[in-house]
């Protein structure tokens, strides 16, 4: 005989049930699965289908809120700056053939200084194909 395996249950909730579920999730700071299981466990216990020991064990487990890491403001600013540079360089790459040479040199310098960006290698390659070099290199 095989051992018992956990089973998934898909529930279709009407509007009132869904709002209650979302309120539970928000009030307790839970993810969707934990909020659903907590509501389900509460119902089973109140109807007498779950022992008090099983109820207490499961409520303790499924009442654990989501672990939210607060973003470090320095890391957040650096990431935002990288995204901004990436977007600027992507735009420059699209318009490369129509940009004045000094603007191309500027973008080449930026790409060279930020090689960690995915678009930088393409800018460096494209500028090499067009004979553009950094003035201060």
General description of the model:
- This protein is an all-alpha fold and 137 residues long.
- The protein folds into two domains: 15-62, no CATH class; 73-129, no CATH class.
- Helices cover 62% and strands 0% of the residues.
- The chain is built from six helices and no strands.
- It has helices at 15-28, 32-46, 52-62, 73-94, 101-113, 120-129.
- The longest helix has 22 residues, at 73-94.
- It is rod-shaped, with a radius of gyration of 28 Å.
Blueprint (SSEs and pairs):
Layout lengths: L14 H14 L3 H15 L5 H11 L10 H22 L6 H13 L6 H10 L8
From the structure above, extract its key features:
137 residues, 2 domains, 6 helices, rod-shaped, mainly alpha
One letter per element, helices H and strands E, the order comes to HHHHHH
**Mean pLDDT value:** 86
* Tally of domains: 2
Largest sheet: none
Write down the overall geometry. Answer: rod-shaped
What is the C-alpha radius of gyration, as a whole number of Å? Answer: 28 Å
Spans where pLDDT lies below 50 across 5 or more residues: none
